[in-house]
Structures are given as structure tokens and as C-alpha cells.
Amino acid sequence: MAGARRLGLDEVVAYFQGLEDPPSEINRKHPLASVVVIALIAVLAGASGPTAIAQWAALEEEFLASVLPLPHGVPCKDVFRRVLMALRPEAFQACFAARVRSLRDQAAAETGVERPTLAIDGKTLRRSHDRRNGLGALHSVTAWASEYGLSLGQLACDEKSNEIAAIPELLRLVDVSGGVVTIDAMGCQKAIAEAVVAAKGDYVLALKDNQPKLRQAVVDHLMSRWEVDFAGDEVGRRQTQETGHGRRETRTYLQLEAPEGLPGSGSWRELRSIGVAISEVVRDGEASDEVRYYISSLAVEPDAARFAHAVRSHWGVENGCHWALDVTFREDESRIRERRLRENMAWLNRFCLSLLRQHPGRQSVAMKRRSCGWSDDYLMQVVIGSTS
Fold first, then answer.
1. Nearest 5°: CA angle at 334, between 329 and 336?
2. How many of the other CB atoms lie within 10 Å of CB of 44?
3. Out of 165-169, 290-294, 370-374, which region has the weakest mean confidence (pLDDT)?
4. What secondary structure letter does DSSP report for 321?
């Protein structure tokens, strides 16, 4: 069993062989790849920072020595802290790229979904600020493949308002080719649409008051065509219903060709359609509704299937990623304040969440993570991606 574990973990170690050893005397006696892999599997087992990583490693020294090269034993807390503070986040994340691609290919084969919804959304680590030193809370933008339960990448920005500049950079870091990129209204920008198309993806962008003229033109066109029941239009229609817990929700999706004359339409790369999603909810006899408008590079389909799926799947980043990071990884409670350390830990959390979601067990993500802490065999299954 130990030989199989080590053989499988050798592939994981290989991802980090290209990392440049940060200049420091304290970690030179420990192989950098081993330090990083210990940090990764310790986070899977429940650790949330350098102190916890070191404590877990000390308790698991015999196990770690059987699967990793550790010529001088397990590193101490200072080693983990200094390494994770010294590694550039973009270089650190790039080392995971091959494994992320592999996980994406596996998920595509298992789900049969060739064109995933790639939801781009931001999240703030609320307690990671340091007012004394003028450091705001970490806000990062994540690319989440909703159908796969897989984080493709993240990029930190100083605050939510800077997402507009961060999103094109993130799109250059991750592979969005063939996917449908969904972004909320803040990301409805011409440069972002351009970046998505340049990366060989499609986009569905929410419209709100940050594009007032365009939004009003979309609303006016949809209303005018609705009044004549879209006579003569190529229109996609779809309606779904969900019931449960005393709640009934009806969702209606309409997709039309983008009309000529939309404000600035010539500047929106590959703008092909406009759409609306109407949610009508009845709960305990009380009715409410919400209407959202979109522009998209997707062609109009009679059943609006791809458009409707993209709109609905976008919220997977909230439920499948952000909620799990807060509840299972307790990310909102993190008090890590060093800029690089908190960013690298945030990526470790997202990558570990992706590994847990790829494991075929039916348990919740929280239970899978607990199981990683309870069983070395289970931990290796999740890390290596094998249940044999």
C-alpha cells in the first residue's frame, strides 16, 4: 500500500518541480516540492494556515516519510510560513495548471458536458484586513466550472470595484475555450467580452445600471416584441418549474437575436443575442418576482437551452464554491494578513475543494474533508484521484 501511495503521489510532486526555491536559509534542507505537497494535503485534512499545517505534519510524520522525500524530517511552522509567503501567487497557481486540465478532462468525460458554464465571480475574505498596516480584506475573482465543481483559477484584487480590471487578467490565466463564461453586471464590459471571445469562449453577461443605455434599449426591444408575441422573430423560449419546502418557482427564459441599433452594439465583440430570465416565486402564499436582462455571444436556439442553462448555472459559483469555502473551510474567519500568504492559502482552499468535489463518494464536501483527516487511505484517494 505504501508503495502504491508513493507512486501515485510522485505525480503530484512532479507538478511542483518547476517552482523556484524562494531565497531563504530556513527551507533549503527541505525539498520545496515536498513542503508544498504537505501544505496541500494538510489543507485537505482540515488545516487552515501554517501553524495547523505544521501540527498536522508532525502528527503524520511516519505517514509522510513513507510517501514523500523528507531527508530532514517534516518541516516546522516557520518553513511552511516562509515558503507560502515567498512564493509568487501566479507562479504557485501555475504549477497546478496541468492537474486542473487533467481534472477538467476527467469531469468532461464523466459528465458528458463538453461546453461547461464558467462562472466568474468575486469573493471577499472578510476578516483578512489589517487596518493598522493599511491592508484591506482580500478580494479574489474565481473562475468556477459549475457542472464540474472545479476551480480553474483565481486572481486577487484590492477591492470589489477592481474586478473589472482583474477579470481580463484571469481570463488570460485559465482555459475558457469551448466554455460559456457568465459574469454578473459589474463584468458587463466591452473589454471583458473581447477577452472571452479572444480566448475562444462564449459569454452571457448580466445587464444592470452600469450600462444604462444598453440595458434600457434591451428592455424596450423585448417589451415591444412581447406585445406582438414576437411575431416574425427568431425567438428561443424555455420555462421550468421547481417545488419544495413550501416554495414554487417558475423560471421563464426568452432569447432573441440582438437587434440592430443597440447602443454601442458594434463595439461588443460577437454580440449575437439578448435575453431575459424571469423568476416567479410563491412561498407560503406570498408571490414575488425578479427579472434579469442579458447580452450574449450565443446564437438563438428555439428552446433557449444553452442560454437558460448558462444563466441558471452561474449561481453554482455561490452554492458550489463560495458557500462551501465559508462553511467547510471557514474562509471568512481567516485572520491571515500577509498578502502572498493569504492569497496562496485561498488558492489551496479552492484547489482542495475541487479535489473533494471530484471524489465519487456521495458524502457532503464537509464529510469528505473530515474523512481526509481521519483516514490516510481516504486522503490519498482524494489527492491522487483514485479509489482503487
1. 130
2. 25
3. 165-169
4. I
Look at residue 318 and tell me if it is in a domain.
Answer: yes
> Domain containing 253: what range?
98-322
Helices 32-44, 77-86: axis angle to 10 degrees equals 100
Q: Which three cell numbers stand for residue 327?
A: 462553511
Sequence length of the chain is 388
pLDDT of 118-152, one tens digit each?
A: 999 988 876 666 666 666 667 889 999 999 999 99
C-alpha 224 chain-centroid distance: 38
Q: Are residues 161 and 274 in the same domain?
A: yes
Look at residue 129 in the predicted model and tell me its pLDDT. Answer: 65
Rounded to 10 degrees, the C-alpha dihedral 279/122/126/368 comes to 80
Contacts of 213 (CB under 8 A, 6+ apart): 263, 264
For residue 308, which of 275, 332, 285, 283 has the smallest C-alpha distance? 275
220 Cβ contact partners less than 8 Å away, ≥ 6 residues apart: none
Q: How far is CA 183 from the centre of its chain?
A: 12
Do residues 75 and 134 share a domain? no
H or E element at residue 8: helix 2-14
Amino acid, single-letter form, for residue 237: R
Provide the CATH number for the domain around residue 114. Answer: 3.90.350.10
DSSP-derived 3-state class of residue 19: coil
> Model pTM?
0.90
Segment 220-240 shows an average pLDDT of 94
Q: If you write DSSP's letter for every residue of 120-169 in order, what string do you get?
A: EEEEE-TT--BGGGTBPPPEEEEEEETTTTEEEEEEEESSGGGHHHHHHH
Q: Band of the pLDDT at 16, cuts 50, 70, 90?
A: confident
